[in-house]
Each structure stands twice: as structure tokens, then as C-alpha cells.
Design a protein that fits this description.
194 residues; mainly beta; Jelly Rolls; globular; binds D-sorbitol-6-phosphate; binds zinc ion
């Protein structure tokens, strides 16, 4: 009799994400309008007809059901807007108890984390580094290297993604290049949620 166990196997395919995958998202500069500090520069780049890819996400989502896990592989391109490195939008999970694990695959990055009270933390993410993101903590990943940054994410399939708060309030910290090196600095435009 055939087994009733349904399992899933995929492979990490470097900068091509996962092989196989079910869904691919592409985020271009126009999708991140309003996210970078230098908004004028973003509009200037877009007005020239340029709209570079900032990142791609290769996903194997599961049905949003308690106990199931989804897999995602993010590829952030190298680049900057002014001196601010390319990054993901960043989000809170809608389900308060949802945590997440990131595993570095290629490149050099920083994960910015921030709770609802505006307290922040950050971690490096690079090959062989595993980062546990606790519940209630928003997360954004920044590529601070010269090549693509690739990392794997494993998260509850019913975690949900709240992009609105970050889009509106931003992160309290930014990652910028100073003297040729990445530095985590205060975001001058950040206003703490009341
Ligand atoms: C999902 C997980 C990642 C991100 C991806 C893109 O919970 O944190 O797969 O979705 O890195 O970032 P964002 O903020 O655009 O979803
Ligand atoms: Zn997440």
C-alpha cells in the first residue's frame, strides 16, 4: 500500500532561488516608491525610464493553516539609491505568534528588526548564518555586498504579512554606505507610532 505521507523536497539554486518553486514575485524600484530616504532621487531614476529589479522572491507557499510552514528564497540585487543599499519592503506578520527562520545562502546582508514599541536590533546574514526572528518583530533585509544576497525563509503559512505599518512609518534605522562600508544609522524621518 502506498504511504499517505505527503512531503516536499526542493533545492536551493543560488541566485536562481529555488528549484522547483511555485510562485515568483519581482519587486522593482517603482514598487518601493516612498521607501527610500532620497525620494527625489527615486523619482529621477524612474523618470529616465529606468526601473531596476530590487529583489525577487521564489516561494513554495502552503495553505494558510495552523501548523503548516511555507518556504521562500529571496534574492536581493546589489545596488544603492544614493548611499542607501537596496532592501526588501519589510513587514510585521499579521499573526502575532508567528516567528520565522532565515538562513543565509550567498552574499552579505543585514536584517533590521523592530518591534511595535520601536525598539530595534540587527543581525548580519550571510552563508551559514541562521537568524531566528521572534514573534511581533518586523523585519527588513538589506544587501550590503557587491553581489546578490540570497537567503532562505521558513515561516508559518498562516503568518500573514502586514506591510502597511512599515510603509507608513518606516524603520527607525537605515543601512547606508559610509567610507565604503555599511553602517546602520538613525532614520531622520522615522516617527514612532503613538
Ligand atoms: C516572509 C519572509 C520573506 C520575505 C521576503 C521579501 O515572511 O519574511 O520571504 O517575504 O524576504 O520581503 P518582503 O518584506 O517584501 O515580504
Ligand atoms: Zn516574514
Amino acid at each position: 500500500m502506498a504511504s499517505s505521507i505527503t512531503y516536499l523536497t526542493t533545492t536551493i539554486d543560488g541566485a536562481r532561488g529555488l528549484k522547483p518553486y511555485k510562485r515568483k514575485l519581482t519587486r522593482r524600484l517603482s514598487d518601493l516608491r516612498g521607501y527610500f530616504l532620497n525620494k527625489g532621487l527615486v523619482e529621477e531614476i524612474l523618470s529616465k525610464g529606468e526601473n531596476p529589479i530590487i529583489y525577487e522572491v521564489y516561494e513554495i507557499p502552503q495553505e494558510p493553516t495552523d501548523g503548516l510552514l511555507s518556504i521562500g528564497c529571496t534574492v536581493i540585487y546589489p545596488g544603492k539609491v544614493g548611499d542607501e543599499y537596496y532592501f526588501t519592503k519589510g513587514h510585521f506578520h499579521t499573526k502575532e505568534s508567528a516567528s520565522e527562520v532565515y538562513i543565509g545562502v550567498e552574499g552579505e546582508g543585514i536584517i533590521l528588526m523592530q518591534n511595535k514599541e520601536g525598539e530595534t536590533a540587527y543581525s548580519r546574514i550571510e552563508p551559514n548564518v541562521i537568524v531566528y526572528i521572534p514573534p511581533g518583530v518586523a523585519h527588513r533585509t538589506i544587501n550590503v555586498g557587491s553581489g546578490k544576497l540570497v537567503f532562505l525563509a521558513v515561516y508559518p503559512s498562516d503568518a500573514g504579512h502586514d506591510y502597511g505599518s512599515i510603509e507608513k512609518l518606516g524603520f527607525a534605522k537605515l543601512v547606508v554606505e559610509r567610507d565604503g562600508k555599511p553602517e546602520v544609522v538613525d532614520n531622520p524621518n522615522y516617527v514612532k507610532a503613538s
